[in-house]
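name: query_chain
kind: protein
chains: 1
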Amino acid sequence: MNLDDAPAPTCSVCLRPLYADELGHQACRPCTDRVDLHLRALAGPEGLYARLGGRLMPGSGNGGPAVSGSRTAPLPLRLEPLSLLARGGVVTILQTWIVDFHELLGYTYPRWEGDLQQQCDQAVKRLRILLPWAAEKHPAFEEVAREISQLRRQCEAQVSGERPPRRVPVQCGCGQVLRITLDSDGARCPQCQAQYGHSELLDLPLAERRAAA
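structure:
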């Protein structure tokens, strides 16, 4: 094949062609900057992770008093923000990526210190330091970007009390149904492994009701 006919390298996140100074990277500069922005939004005393603590009481998600519309006693805490605050939530996901980065780089296993808020701040700081390397070399940077973007959206939904965006079933060329939102950054088909950027996802046809069921 003539080298001039070879497809231009693209960003693994948005699928746009890479600029000359981005060649050899997994992601373009705007997508890398977007991941950094998501990370910064999570950390700190005024960050999304810290603000989840104010949404634990029933009724706190809509800005009103903590009341129950049923005859039964409400749960003592709201499960959605609790699942993001507790082990297995935001901090664990961030730390899992740090461990993955360290293993690929041959670094020692990271140590976690302090409470979960402190660990969140430490994890964000470490990921931001390693982000330029990951955007260039990490073989699954698209997954890194997608998970961190999802974490921010999930936290924002709990902090603001807004309903999560409605998912729309669209159909991949192989027939697999993908459930996306209008603000999905991208998606990979689990069946054929086709990778779609934001604009490509919105161009996919709606799945027929039978296929989407």
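note: Residues 165-213 form one domain.
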